[in-house]
Design brief:
Number of strands of chain A: 10
Number of helices of chain A: 1
CATH architecture of the largest domain in chain B: Up-down Bundle
Radius of gyration of chain B: 30 Å
CATH topology of the largest domain in chain B: Cytochrome Bc1 Complex, Chain C
Shape of chain B: elongated
Structural class of chain A: alpha+beta
Strand content of chain B: under 5%
Oligomer: heterodimer
Largest sheet of chain A: 6 strands, antiparallel
Strand content of chain A: 25-35%
CATH topology of the largest domain in chain A: Rieske Iron-sulfur Protein
Order of helices and strands of chain A: HEEEEEEEEEE
Number of helices of chain B: 18
Largest sheet of chain B: 2 strands, antiparallel
CATH class of the largest domain in chain B: Mainly Alpha
Helix content of chain A: 25-40%
Number of domains of chain A: 2
Chain lengths: ~150, ~500
């Protein structure tokens, strides 16, 4: 009985060894392959959108002016000598909002914002993003996205 | 670089005041430059010289190759174009370094410059060979394990009761041992399928980065090769699998002919196989074109112009092939679509049909003996042999990928055509050699077509091997077919070698 049991044990262990180690190797290979695939796809060929925009001489934005730049997209106000800017990207799902001089409205899902970017009507929950504005060296108006 | 300043700031007032002697600080009035300047001098543009470094500099160029082309063509201002390629590349690298955009460890040249952007720092991928080797050895070990995990007990009952997995299920439960000897089949058909799988996989991966436009194609190929992690390996695998596939299929064809295996009922499957060879050659040719760099220029011109020489339908065929009256972006779109879809779909269908017909026709041609039990092997043994062939083929493939990089050239610029790149891809070198002898229609179109037709007609118009001769090398029955095929292939081989050592 004991000898038979040993034989049984040895036979099984050899086959199980091959099976288990093969599966382990396959699993490891699969994980490594996935890691390689992940790295392969990690490269980003496109530079992405600019994070800062130079708008030239601040004098082009006189007191009381209101300038829309749909390429950024942003709206730039000069309120009593202080230049402020809002992003025109809807805070709901990223469409560019339309402007009818009184308020901004999103063509995609109908969110509406007032001239200060505050939500008038949903589905957007957050106000339009205010953008950081600076006058950089050489007297150039620069706005930062994010 | 004194025009552009010591730091690449451009010909600024500050630079001129700090570095030039007082009498020479105004470049436009001091008399050194200008219409009345001494010989060999030149006029300085009113705008001065632009900055090379800093924010906003070099905005008109997007990648290093564009900057290089400008430097080589226009700089120094006088005499323009006097720099050697090496000097111009060194200057390009210097300017990149001034802007902190030069990737470390890369020597810029025309085969990677298009991939290196000027306004964005990119990092080179780490060395991918160790990772690839580790993964390969793991897969190798597991392949061996897979092949041998079926213990002897299971093998005995394999044909009856063992439940095969999907891969095993694709094989017949038992086949005669004589049909599965390496010295008979050479493993060529199986290796061809294996290489095709690698081609499908690596081709799919390449498609995630490849841009099928004349401007985008060479840039994206350089990007895959230079910047994408494992991109170089993927591209090398795709390239070398494609080259080996042509060779392996030819060996397969030679085996079938030299063993008389195309005799009925297998004559139809033989023709399907020939069709596959033609499809694979077309795939290789279109794939070769997709680089769209200077290396392919003449092959594209000659290969498509050959179609024009065909009477009656030539011009129509030509315009169908290139999508217009001269090669352009429509041509690349057509070649791309043929390559990734049209021809590939054809190959997938033909391979499935080919494999189906092997079994429909009673397996691989072999002596029809009484098949006693001892002389047949199970699907598990068959798979072991296939795995072994795949392992050997995979190792050779990987060795080539690590040692020999796939060819790549500079993007086509129109001004910089290299006459040295006028050779056809190697699998069409024999046609190029033929073309030197005379009439392009007869030698370049009719002759290759005749080769295919003659090979296809071997089972029909020449004597076939007898049944009892099947499964042996060089049977007497189809001696004529063997001689014709060997003569054709040796001629092609001779012309290929002649063309490649030119």
């Amino acid at each position: 009985m004991k000898i038979n049991g040993m034989k049984e044990f040895q036979r099984l262990s050899r086959r199980d060894f091959i099976k288990i180690s093969t599966n382990a190797l396959l699993g490891l290979g699969g994980v490594l392959g996935l890691a390689g695939l992940f790295r392969y796809f990690s490269f980003q060929p496109d530079p992405g959108t600019p994070k800062e925009w130079d708008l030239g001489d601040p004098a082009a934005f006189p007191i009381g002016s209101r300038t829309e730049r749909r390429d950024i997209p942003a709206v730039i106000y000069n309120r009593d000598g202080k230049i402020v800017a809002f992003s025109l990207t809807c805070t709901h799902l990223g469409c560019t909002v339309d402007d009818d001089d009184k308020e901004f409205s999103c063509p995609c899902h109908g969110s509406r914002f007032d001239q200060d970017g505050q939500v008038i009507e949903g589905p957007a929950q957050k106000a339009l993003n205010p953008l950081r504005v600076e006058i950089s060296e050489g007297n150039i108006l620069r706005i930062h996205i994010d | 670089m004194s025009c552009h300043g010591d730091l690449g700031q451009g010909l600024t007032d500050e630079w001129r005041k700090t570095s030039f002697d007082p009498g020479y600080q105004d470049c436009w009035k001091s008399g050194c430059h200008g219409s009345d300047a001494p010989k060999n001098s030149f006029e300085i543009p009113a705008t001065g010289a632009p900055a090379l470094a800093g924010s906003g500099a070099l905005a008109r160029f997007s990648n290093s190759l564009e900057l290089y082309n400008h430097i080589q063509g226009k700089m120094p201002f006088s005499p323009a174009g006097s720099l050697s390629a090496e000097q111009a590349w060194a200057l390009t690298a210097t300017i990149l370094r001034m802007n902190n955009k030069q990737p470390g460890g890369l020597t810029l040249n025309e085969t990677n410059g298009a991939a290196i952007p000027l306004h964005r720092k990119v990092d080179l991928p780490e060395n991918e060979i160790p990772g690839a080797l580790i993964l390969t050895s793991i897969l190798l070990l597991s392949a061996v394990g897979l092949a041998f995990r079926t213990g002897p007990d299971q093998a005995k009952q394999a044909s009856q009761s063992a439940r095969p997995n999907f891969f095993h299920h694709l094989h017949p439960a038992r086949i005669p041992e004589a049909q599965a000897r390496f010295l008979y089949t050479l493993g060529a058909g199986g290796i061809a399928v294996f290489l095709s799988m690698i081609l499908l996989l690596t081709g799919l991966l390449e498609m995630y980065y490849y841009i099928p436009t004349p401007q985008g194609a060479p840039v994206s190929v350089q990007t895959i090769t230079t910047l994408v992690p494992f991109g170089n390996l993927v591209r090398n695998l795709h390239f070398w699998s494609a080259q080996f596939l042509v060779i392996v299929i030819t060996v397969h064809l030679l085996r079938v002919v030299l063993t008389g295996s195309y005799a009925p009922p297998r004559h139809f499957n033989y023709v399907i196989g020939l069709g596959l060879l033609v499809f694979i050659l077309l795939l290789n040719f279109t794939g070769y074109m997709l680089r769209w760099d200077e290396g392919i220029h003449w092959a594209l011109t000659v290969g498509t112009n050959l179609l024009k020489t065909i009477p009656w339908v030539g011009n129509g065929l030509y315009q169908f092939a290139i999508g217009g009256t001269s090669p352009g972006s429509a041509t690349l779109t057509r070649f791309y679509t043929w390559h990734i879809f049209g021809l590939t779909l054809g190959v997938v269908i033909l391979v499935a049909w080919h494999a189906f017909r092997v079994r429909r026709d009673g397996g691989i041609a072999a002596p029809s003996t009484g098949q006693p039990a001892g002389e047949s092997i199970t699907r598990f043994d068959l798979v072991k042999r296939e795995v072994l062939a795949m392992v050997v083929a995979g190792l050779v493939l990987l060795l080539f990928c690590v040692i020999f990089p796939a060819p790549i050239g500079a993007p086509i610029s129109g001004t910089n055509l290299m006459p040295g790149d006028s050779r056809a891809p190697w699998f069409f070198l024999w046609i190029q050699e033929l073309l030197k002898a005379g009439d392009p229609f007869f030698l370049g179109v009719v002759t290759p077509a005749l080769v295919v037709v003659v090979l296809a007609l071997l089972p029909t118009i020449f004597p076939n091997a007898k049944n009892h001769e099947l499964g042996c090398w060089l049977p007497a029955g189809n001696r004529v077919g063997q001689v014709i095929t060997v003569v054709i292939l040796l001629t092609i081989l001779f012309l290929t070698i002649k063309g490649s050592i030119r």
